[in-house]
Amino acid sequence: MPLALIAFLYSRDHRGEIHEIDDSGPQRGRLSKRYWIGWIGFTFAISAEFSTVFWAAALLRERFELSSGTATTAVLCFAAGMALGRWFGVSTFRKVDIDPRTLFFVTLQLIGFLLFWQVGNFPLALFGLFATGLGASAQFTLFSTRLIRFASEKPDLAIGISAWGAGLAIGFAPFLVGALSDHVGIYTAYWVVPIFIILAGLTLFVRSDLITYRRT
């Protein structure tokens, strides 16, 4: 708690901002095809993140014959990567547009996951898990920013609907991996994760920098 309080006090924006309620009420209307493609990418990105963290301990336990406690503790490498990335990731390469920045983190996540998933060396597997967390860390923010761009003048609606994707990903993707692992084992079931990552990456080729955002 003390560390969390210190982090909050020293990292928050002290400038202050007043949120003005729109007189027209909640935003409504149709969203573009580009938005929905971005939404699918957002959903796949969250699916990959939660599928990894839910079942990483099971893979470590099976591959390296670890105890449940040791395997679960080792997953902190993923959390460490997430923490470092959340602290610095979004502000990395500020002069680079959102789309290539997102692609960088997706690629890092894919490389890290393949290393974690495939290597038979325990320290290398932990490094891969750390890199996976680092790659996943900034994706929620970056994919959300893309959705806001795609929604043009409906940013609140864009973020509201993104919650459906996050809920679907968190509720369904880890369950899918678990159900598959009951039949084929966690190693084979984990094929789902790189597929999620690649599909999320493919949606980035629908560029968001072509959208001009205007606030009325």
Automatic annotation (TrEMBL):
One of its GO terms (molecular function) is transmembrane transporter activity. Belongs to the major facilitator superfamily. InterPro entries: MFS, MFS_trans_sf, MFS_Transporter. The keyword Transmembrane helix applies. This is Unannotated protein. Keywords: Membrane, Transmembrane, Transmembrane helix, Transport. SUPFAM superfamilies: MFS general substrate transporter. It is found in: Endomembrane system. It is a multi-pass membrane protein. The chain crosses the membrane at residues 36-58, 70-90, 102-119, 125-145, 157-180, 186-206. GO terms for cellular component: endomembrane system; membrane.
